[in-house]
């Protein structure tokens, strides 16, 4: 991830959240993200984008690891000129394509997560192996 000047700023706040691997827990994640982001200058115009992208990454971790009891970790780091979010799971992993996702089929019932993340955030990096996956997303302020 090329975080450039956004990464050079000092960290103003780092918040961590451990999410139970169940769809209903996503509501609490959204509340955590809003509470973390709301009071920082320059973040407000991007709060919904950051929350939505984080929700999509966490939802993918829940939905694509059915029956898992392993938690999902979310780290939100607020810097002077950027917000960095990392969503990590301990699932079975997958093979990222390395390509930016295309717009999903309008009639598809699913498959929009990566497209949404890439559309809302400035940078998205996905690493995955047989021990789990990590989605890192950067939003410049």
Automatic annotation (TrEMBL):
Q: Which residues form the Histidine kinase/HSP90-like ATPase domain?
A: 26-138
Matches recorded under InterPro entries: Anti-sigma-factor_SerPK, HATPase_C_sf, HATPase_dom
Q: Which UniProt keywords apply?
A: Kinase, Serine/threonine-protein kinase, Transferase
The Gene Ontology terms for molecular function here are: protein serine/threonine kinase activity
The protein's name in its UniProt record: Histidine kinase/HSP90-like ATPase domain-containing protein
Organism equals Candidatus Anoxymicrobium japonicum
Upper lineage is:
Bacteria, Bacillati, Actinomycetota, Candidatus Geothermincolia, Candidatus Geothermincolales
């Amino acid at each position: 991830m090329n975080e450039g000047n956004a990464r050079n700023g000092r960290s103003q706040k780092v918040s961590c959240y451990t999410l139970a691997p169940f769809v209903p827990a996503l509501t609490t994640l959204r509340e955590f993200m809003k509470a973390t982001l709301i009071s920082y200058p320059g973040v407000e115009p991007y709060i919904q984008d950051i929350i939505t992208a984080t929700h999509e990454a966490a939802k993918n971790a829940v939905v694509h690891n059915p029956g898992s009891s392993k938690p999902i970790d979310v780290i939100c780091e607020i810097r002077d000129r950027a917000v960095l979010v990392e969503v990590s799971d301990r699932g079975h992993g997958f093979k990222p394509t390395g390509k930016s996702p295309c717009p999903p089929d309008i009639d598809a019932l699913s498959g929009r997560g990566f497209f949404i993340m890439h559309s809302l955030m400035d940078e998205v990096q996905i690493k995955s192996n047989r021990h789990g996956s990590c989605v890192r997303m950067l939003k410049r302020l």
